[in-house]
Amino acid sequence: MAATDRTQALIDLLLGAAYADQHLDDREAERVQELLAYMLDGKIPTELEMQIDTFDPEAFDLARSAAAFKGDPAADREHLLSLVAAVHEADETLDLAEDDYLQQLCAALGLPASALGGLTVKVEVEEIKTRYKKVTTPPPLPPGALKK
Length: 148
Known about the structure:
With 148 residues, the protein is mainly α. The protein has one domain: TerB-like (Orthogonal Bundle). It has 7 helices and no strands. α1 packs antiparallel against α2 (26-39), α2 packs antiparallel against α5 and α5 (74-89) packs antiparallel against α6. The longest helix is centred in the N-terminal third of the chain and has 16 residues, at 3-18.
Protein backbone atom coordinates (compact mmCIF):
# COMPACT_ATOMS: atom_id res chain seq x y z
CA MET A 1 0.00 0.00 0.00
CA ALA A 2 1.38 3.44 -0.89
CA ALA A 3 2.34 5.84 1.88
CA THR A 4 -0.49 8.19 0.85
CA ASP A 5 -2.99 5.37 1.22
CA ARG A 6 -1.67 4.68 4.70
CA THR A 7 -1.85 8.37 5.56
CA GLN A 8 -5.45 8.38 4.39
CA ALA A 9 -6.16 5.30 6.50
CA LEU A 10 -4.47 6.96 9.48
CA ILE A 11 -6.61 10.08 9.02
CA ASP A 12 -9.73 7.94 8.92
CA LEU A 13 -8.74 6.11 12.12
CA LEU A 14 -8.01 9.37 13.93
CA LEU A 15 -11.25 10.96 12.76
CA GLY A 16 -13.14 7.78 13.61
CA ALA A 17 -11.73 8.19 17.12
CA ALA A 18 -12.86 11.82 17.23
CA TYR A 19 -16.39 10.79 16.26
CA ALA A 20 -16.49 7.63 18.41
CA ASP A 21 -18.85 9.26 20.89
CA GLN A 22 -21.12 10.52 18.08
CA HIS A 23 -19.86 14.07 18.62
CA LEU A 24 -16.89 15.93 17.17
CA ASP A 25 -15.41 18.09 19.89
CA ASP A 26 -13.32 21.03 18.63
CA ARG A 27 -10.42 19.95 20.84
CA GLU A 28 -10.43 16.47 19.29
CA ALA A 29 -10.50 17.96 15.78
CA GLU A 30 -7.57 20.21 16.72
CA ARG A 31 -5.65 17.22 18.12
CA VAL A 32 -6.11 15.34 14.84
CA GLN A 33 -4.78 18.37 12.95
CA GLU A 34 -1.84 18.73 15.36
CA LEU A 35 -0.88 15.06 15.11
CA LEU A 36 -1.04 15.09 11.34
CA ALA A 37 0.89 18.34 11.02
CA TYR A 38 3.60 16.94 13.29
CA MET A 39 3.83 13.70 11.29
CA LEU A 40 3.82 15.57 7.96
CA ASP A 41 6.51 18.07 8.96
CA GLY A 42 4.11 20.91 9.62
CA LYS A 43 2.10 20.98 6.40
CA ILE A 44 -1.02 18.98 5.67
CA PRO A 45 -1.46 18.68 1.89
CA THR A 46 -4.66 20.08 0.38
CA GLU A 47 -6.00 16.65 -0.64
CA LEU A 48 -5.64 15.43 2.95
CA GLU A 49 -7.32 18.58 4.27
CA MET A 50 -10.21 17.79 1.92
CA GLN A 51 -10.35 14.24 3.26
CA ILE A 52 -10.59 15.63 6.78
CA ASP A 53 -13.29 18.13 5.83
CA THR A 54 -15.40 15.53 4.02
CA PHE A 55 -15.01 12.66 6.52
CA ASP A 56 -18.31 10.82 6.96
CA PRO A 57 -18.46 8.96 10.28
CA GLU A 58 -21.46 6.95 9.04
CA ALA A 59 -19.50 5.58 6.09
CA PHE A 60 -16.29 4.99 8.06
CA ASP A 61 -15.11 1.36 8.12
CA LEU A 62 -12.73 0.80 11.02
CA ALA A 63 -11.68 -2.69 9.90
CA ARG A 64 -10.84 -1.51 6.37
CA SER A 65 -8.76 1.41 7.64
CA ALA A 66 -7.00 -0.71 10.27
CA ALA A 67 -6.12 -3.33 7.63
CA ALA A 68 -3.53 -0.91 6.21
CA PHE A 69 -1.51 -1.35 9.42
CA LYS A 70 -2.22 -4.95 10.36
CA GLY A 71 1.09 -6.22 8.92
CA ASP A 72 3.18 -3.69 10.82
CA PRO A 73 5.30 -4.72 13.82
CA ALA A 74 3.32 -4.95 17.07
CA ALA A 75 5.13 -1.94 18.54
CA ASP A 76 4.03 0.23 15.59
CA ARG A 77 0.43 -0.96 15.89
CA GLU A 78 0.52 -0.22 19.62
CA HIS A 79 1.82 3.27 18.81
CA LEU A 80 -1.19 3.73 16.55
CA LEU A 81 -3.42 2.88 19.53
CA SER A 82 -1.68 5.58 21.57
CA LEU A 83 -2.27 8.15 18.80
CA VAL A 84 -5.97 7.30 18.83
CA ALA A 85 -6.01 7.53 22.65
CA ALA A 86 -4.44 11.00 22.35
CA VAL A 87 -7.40 12.09 20.22
CA HIS A 88 -9.82 10.74 22.82
CA GLU A 89 -8.00 12.51 25.64
CA ALA A 90 -8.14 15.88 23.91
CA ASP A 91 -11.64 16.71 25.16
CA GLU A 92 -10.78 15.66 28.73
CA THR A 93 -13.98 13.60 28.88
CA LEU A 94 -14.14 9.96 29.86
CA ASP A 95 -16.41 8.18 27.39
CA LEU A 96 -17.13 4.46 27.19
CA ALA A 97 -17.88 4.73 23.45
CA GLU A 98 -14.31 5.94 22.95
CA ASP A 99 -13.00 3.02 24.98
CA ASP A 100 -15.08 0.69 22.85
CA TYR A 101 -13.56 2.23 19.73
CA LEU A 102 -10.05 1.59 21.09
CA GLN A 103 -10.95 -2.02 21.87
CA GLN A 104 -12.36 -2.53 18.38
CA LEU A 105 -9.25 -0.98 16.84
CA CYS A 106 -7.01 -3.15 18.98
CA ALA A 107 -8.82 -6.26 17.74
CA ALA A 108 -8.81 -5.04 14.12
CA LEU A 109 -5.04 -4.53 14.35
CA GLY A 110 -4.63 -8.10 15.60
CA LEU A 111 -3.23 -6.99 18.94
CA PRO A 112 -3.89 -8.68 22.28
CA ALA A 113 -6.14 -6.86 24.75
CA SER A 114 -3.05 -6.31 26.91
CA ALA A 115 -1.92 -3.71 24.34
CA LEU A 116 -4.63 -1.44 25.73
CA GLY A 117 -2.96 -1.28 29.14
CA GLY A 118 -3.42 2.24 30.48
CA LEU A 119 -5.31 3.43 27.41
CA THR A 120 -8.84 2.40 28.35
CA VAL A 121 -11.06 2.37 31.37
CA LYS A 122 -11.74 -1.18 32.38
CA VAL A 123 -15.27 -1.47 33.64
CA GLU A 124 -16.14 -4.81 35.12
CA VAL A 125 -19.89 -5.22 34.90
CA GLU A 126 -20.01 -8.05 37.44
CA GLU A 127 -17.92 -6.03 39.87
CA ILE A 128 -20.32 -3.12 39.51
CA LYS A 129 -23.30 -5.39 40.20
CA THR A 130 -21.61 -6.83 43.28
CA ARG A 131 -20.76 -3.38 44.61
CA TYR A 132 -24.31 -2.18 43.92
CA LYS A 133 -25.74 -5.08 45.89
CA LYS A 134 -23.33 -4.42 48.73
CA VAL A 135 -24.15 -0.72 48.86
CA THR A 136 -27.92 -1.15 48.59
CA THR A 137 -28.32 -4.06 50.97
CA PRO A 138 -29.26 -2.83 54.43
CA PRO A 139 -27.10 -3.92 57.31
CA PRO A 140 -28.31 -6.88 59.36
CA LEU A 141 -30.56 -6.11 62.29
CA PRO A 142 -28.87 -6.18 65.68
CA PRO A 143 -29.57 -9.26 67.75
CA GLY A 144 -32.92 -9.03 69.50
CA ALA A 145 -34.19 -6.15 67.35
CA LEU A 146 -37.30 -8.08 66.33
CA LYS A 147 -38.17 -9.17 69.90
CA LYS A 148 -40.74 -7.10 71.74
